[in-house]
Design goal:
Layout lengths: L1 H15 L2 H27 L4 E7 L14 E5 L4 H9 L6 E5 L11 E4 L5 H24 L3 H5 L10 E3 L5 E3 L3 H34 L2 H5 L5 H37 L1 H18 L5 H22 L2 H29 L7 H23 L4 H8 L4 H8 L6 H29 L9 H9 L3
Parallel strand pairs: 1-2, 1-3
Antiparallel strand pairs: 3-4, 5-6
Helix pairs in contact: 1-8, 2-8, 2-9, 6-8, 6-11, 6-12, 6-14, 8-11, 8-15, 9-10, 11-14, 11-15, 12-13, 12-14, 13-14
């Protein structure tokens, strides 16, 4: 055991001192923070002021299109040719919104003319405004209702999910937020298994090609060397993960404080845009109610998530999934002389991981379905699929069974990998096939 500890220490210290580890420990959180901050910052900084000339041939849209701080609608009564000429000569308008007479029956005939294209969100806002006017016109024609009466016909329906437990009781469950959290954690496990599993394989290949391993195994058994390498790199992965969490949290928190006013202004503008979609007399109170309901529902869903269980399961599947695949990657590294020869063996090892990501969408849509259940039981996919299911709510016996199967499979895969590693680590200059690997497995040593 002391020898394994020495190997773990060697693998850990040799990697955390590398420039690549230090660089990735800094760059990783910056990239994570950038993914979360840059879109919000761009949304606040990319201003798109549009002074729109509206040519309405129906007369229905005049003063019925709601202005925002970025989009102003101006109504003119002239030909499209004259408007286009004025636009081309640099007139006061940035674009022309042409609404033909047949727009009620053919809503796809609306056109916008510009010299510099407006943002996609600006065009979407115009489409929403036009659709609202057309909808109101059709409802008024059918039922002779006022706009206030029409607004009362649009109820805000929200179905609350409740799960019936084995004892017959029902409990409200978190749905959208929980699924999103589960997918994020599952994808993180998938990413780290690939990143650090490949590091195990490359480390074995490097030591084998440099003949360093011949010196090492003179005093250490091949199996001890494999386990020390896997556990040492696992500690490196955990260290880098913790660094990423701490630095990412600090960077995102600092950025939120720095851009506090800009983000507040963006939220205010977004609320105004949402309000403009509702009828004018009731839009303020209705939007306020919807915002309050959304915040309350979000808080409620977060409170329903069993975070201690989710965190504990994440650590287990994070480490368990890595150890399972790390042993297989170590076996691959021991069986080849260079990285180019790993492709034939990488495919059967990585297919279950890729399949798990492909199954993730199904698990999100139906976490209690047959495919999601078996995906969370099979050890090669359970670190991904079970991590998606747990935040939504899974029976404890399923979690225990899944964890037990993962541990048993890790022990079995370690034995298989050890047999391959023991023979392959000293094998040089020969192209290894699956048939050859089979012989190594049944060979008694």
């Amino acid at each position: 055991m002391n020898k394994v500890n020495l190997i773990i220490q060697r693998e850990y210290l040799s990697r955390v001192k590398k420039k690549s580890f230090i660089i990735m420990s800094i760059v990783g959180p910056l990239l994570i923070a950038a993914i979360m901050i840059v879109p919000a910052w761009l949304a606040t900084s990319s201003e798109d002021y549009q002074n729109i000339e509206v040519l309405d041939e129906t007369g229905l849209f005049i003063r019925n299109l709601e202005n925002t701080e970025e989009i102003k609608f101006n109504y003119e009564f002239r030909s499209l040719e004259q408007a286009q000429k004025d636009l081309n000569e640099g007139g006061k308008y940035t674009a022309i919104l042409h609404i033909p007479k047949v727009v009620i029956t053919h809503p796809k005939t609306v056109q916008i003319f510009y010299k510099e294209k407006p943002k996609g969100s600006s065009i979407s806002y115009m489409e929403t405004q036009i659709a609202k006017v057309i909808e109101n016109k059709k409802l008024e024609d059918l039922h002779n209702l006022s706009l206030d009466q029409i607004s009362g016909l649009r109820p805000n329906v929200q179905i609350v999910p409740n799960k019936v437990t084995s004892d017959g009781k029902s409990e409200e469950t978190a749905d959208g937020v929980a699924s999103l959290l589960g997918y994020f954690l599952a994808f993180f496990i998938y990413l780290f298994i690939f990143l650090f599993g490949v590091q195990v394989m490359r480390g074995v290949i490097e030591e084998k090609s440099n003949r360093i391993v011949e010196v090492i195994i003179s005093s250490v058994k091949p199996f001890q060397l494999m386990m020390g390498k896997i556990l040492g790199i696992a500690l490196v992965a955990i260290t880098q993960f913790l660094i990423w969490v701490v630095l990412s949290t600090a960077i995102i928190g600092g950025a939120q404080q720095f851009f506090k006013e800009e983000l507040k202004a963006a939220q205010t503008e977004q609320v105004k845009k949402m309000e403009s979609v509702t009828p004018s007399d009731s839009k303020s109170s209705e939007s306020s109610d919807q915002s309050s309901e959304f915040i309350a529902r979000l808080s409620g869903q977060l409170s329903m998530i069993n975070f201690p269980l989710v965190l504990g399961a994440f650590l287990f599947y994070f480490i368990g999934g890595y150890l399972l695949y790390g042993s297989l990657f170590a076996a691959i590294g021991s069986a080849v002389d260079n990285e180019t020869d790993t492709q034939q063996f990488m495919v059967p090892v990585t297919i279950p991981l890729i399949l798990a990501i492909a199954m993730a969408q199904v698990a999100i849509e139906n976490p209690d379905g047959t495919l999601a259940f078996w995906g969370s039981m099979i050890p090669f996919t359970s670190p991904i699929i079970m991590m998606i299911r747990i935040p939504v709510g899974v029976a404890y016996w399923e979690i225990i069974l899944s964890m037990g199967l993962l541990i048993a499979t890790f022990i079995a895969s370690t034995w298989v990998a050890g047999k391959i590693y023991r023979t392959g680590i000293l094998m040089y200059g020969k192209k290894v096939t699956f048939k050859e690997l089979g012989k190594w497995l049944i060979h008694k040593s």
